[in-house]
Amino acid sequence: MRSAPPPTPSAPDRWFPSRKPLPEPRLRLFCLPFAGGSAAIYTPWANALPAGVELCAVQLPGRERRLMEPAYKSLPELMEALMPVLLPLMDRPFALFGYSMGARIGLEVARRLRTQGGPRPLGFIAAAAPPPSHNDREPIHQLDDPGFIAKLREYDGTPEEVLQHKELLDLILPTLRADFGLAWSGDGQDTAKLDIPLAVYGGKTDKHVGAELIEHWRDESTADVRIRQFEGGHFFIRTHGPPVLAAVREDLTRWMTAVP
């Protein structure tokens, strides 16, 4: 069982370390990272989003300034900690963005909001991930250390100098295992379709999440589902960042324009 303490009223500073509140935001964009990633991947977006959009990049335990906090291994436990932090900031129009592991977390946030009668997102952007109903990828977090490290190299998301640094690797490996466990979380009991627009991003040369898997997101919502393919592999957000940001801007603008 998880031993970390539950969030306190002062927790938002830990969960949103780079947030710069706007006086009257038109929309808040909650961004969730990939496995092993942090809120920092989204920091450059802060001044590049449409006017009035407030960036809320989520910092999960087990990384950067939260390195000494154990990472969550269970999606339900993460939701119990994360939802009370998100909800107070959902008093304005908002959207969700999740990359790889973050897409699985974002889907769970949207599902919880619907089942609990919470506020409705204007839209959800899921990138570099299949929907959980079609995640038949190898659960690499269940491999022994040599096998897991070999698979991390195939994903090309962890720098080789980190993989070669035993002390550093020993420090971050538990978080990476926990994150991949979250990414592989199954559907659970709540599998009803969402009723919000989805924008789904994939990498044209992603060996782990091919175009056929991305297409299954069309079954996850009764509303509009638009799919885009970008140049690059699994981490196209790093290698082709400007086109991704341009797409985010376009999708957010479309959703905001649709609000009466």
UniProtKB/TrEMBL annotation:
Domain (Thioesterase TesA-like): residue spans on this chain: 30-252
Key words, A-Z: Hydrolase
Gene3D superfamilies registered for this protein in UniProt: alpha/beta hydrolase (3.40.50.1820)
Keyword Hydrolase among record annotations: yes
Domain of life, source organism: Bacteria
Family to which this protein belongs: Belongs to the thioesterase family.
Official protein name in the record: Thioesterase
